[in-house]
Amino acid sequence: MVAVDPRSAAGTGSDRALQQLYADFDAAGLMPLWTVREGLMPAAPAPRAVPHVWPWAELLPLAARAGDLVPVGRGGERRAIALANPALPGDPFATGTLWAAVQYLGPKEVAPAHRHTQNAFRFVLDGEGVWTVVDGDPVAMRRGDLLLTPGWAWHEHHNTADAPMVWLDGLDIPLVAGLEAGFFEFGPDELTDTTTPVASRGERLWAHPGLRPLAAERDTVSSPLPAYRWRHTDAALTAQLELAAQGHPATVGPGHAAVRFVNPTTGRDALPTVRLEMHRLAAATATTAVREVGSSVWQVFDGEATVTLDDRDHVLGTGDLFAVPSWCPVAIRTDAGADLFRFSDAPVYAALHLARRQTGEPA
Ligand code: GTQ
Ligand code: FE2
């Protein structure tokens, strides 16, 4: 028997018998760990995706051009333009697990009904006039609102206004693709519900703080609340900062208010695979750098901020989006104050006991 140091053997392979062994491994459909261990089991997560910024000033006119040139309808289904991470060439993915897209719906346009196992949400930077009908419940979309489309719920969108509307879509498309768990079905070609109620049925039932309808005894995995309205989000963040200013421990850090959008039946994440949060930084605030296992996408909802990703500074304004890969440190600072929407794959990592978080020094 030839005694070899596995490390040098992997590198040099000078021994003829060893070379033959590797060839025979290959022919038999086998691979030895010692040649692949470092890439397979890195000391810390080594994501393929890189930190990246998509300025709203670039996205919006491109979406509008698509509005002029590309019809929305059966087949393509949605005029959604995905944020494509430059380190994932050919894949329309913001990170390895998250889809983020701007969706553009022109005046009086309809995006037809379908359903899929991928979980989705919409976040509205600006505008109004679109209703998304989720499992037969028409839900108005307005500035600052977060709307849910849980996996396998039927959904269609229709714009009742004379102006186009644009919003952010977030889905777990890359995750579901990687898990080979995707199913998709077309609904009717024609709009199934043309009504435009101010409040959806889901909200009339569930949007009363701390009050659970007794008829709804069973907890659900996804939130039964189809919309989280900006009025509520804004009030919660305002109260946190006011209370913190009075010395109460209401914020996650000095000048940093934050809320998570949760399922009122469980208090857990509103969607099983996607975490949804809104952050407000008061004027002259700098957060401590944080890195987490799992990736996220942020959108500046209001104000201006400088985000530091992997030691690089990016100056951002309203609408700008950025992707944070797994284990990439992120710190945010602002002079005048800023509101930032964030979504991530955190519930997946938590469920699998893979979540880790490290807090460093202020950037
Ligand atoms: O609005 O139904 O951005 O199915 C990607 C897939 C949006 C949607 C996207 C979708 C949708
Ligand atoms: Fe969809």
Q: How does the SSE layout of this entry go?
A:
Blueprint: H1 6-12, H2 16-27, H3 37-40, E1 52-54, H4 56-69, E2 80-82, E3 99-105, E4 110-116, E5 120-123, E6 128-134, E7 137-142, E8 146-149, E9 155-159, E10 165-171, H5 173-178, E11 184-186, H6 201-206, E12 227-228, H7 230-245, E13 256-260, E14 275-281, E15 285-286, E16 288-292, E17 296-303, E18 305-309, E19 312-316, E20 321-324, E21 330-334, E22 338-344, H8 346-351, E23 357-362
Antiparallel strand pairs: 1-20, 2-3, 3-10, 4-9, 4-11, 5-8, 5-10, 6-7, 6-9, 8-12, 13-14, 14-22, 15-21, 16-23, 17-20, 17-22, 18-19, 18-21
Bound molecules: 2,5-dihydroxybenzoic acid and fe (ii) ion (FE2).
Please outline what is shown here:
Helices cover 20% and strands 32% of the residues. With 363 residues, the chain is α+β, with helices and mostly antiparallel strands.
Structural commentary:
With 363 residues, the chain is of the alpha+beta class. It has two domains: 52-206, Jelly Rolls (Sandwich), CATH 2.60.120; 228-359, Jelly Rolls (Sandwich). It has eight helices and 23 strands. It has helices at 6-12, 16-27, 37-40, 56-69, 173-178, 201-206, 230-245, 346-351; strands spanning 52-54, 80-82, 99-105, 110-116, 120-123, 128-134, 137-142, 146-149, 155-159, 165-171, 184-186, 227-228, 256-260, 275-281, 285-286, 288-292, 296-303, 305-309, 312-316, 321-324, 330-334, 338-344, 357-362. A six-stranded antiparallel beta sheet has the order 1-20-17-22-14-13. The radius of gyration is 23 Å and the shape is globular. It starts with 5 loop residues before the first helix and ends with a strand. 40% of the residues are buried. The model has no long low-confidence stretch (mean pLDDT 95).
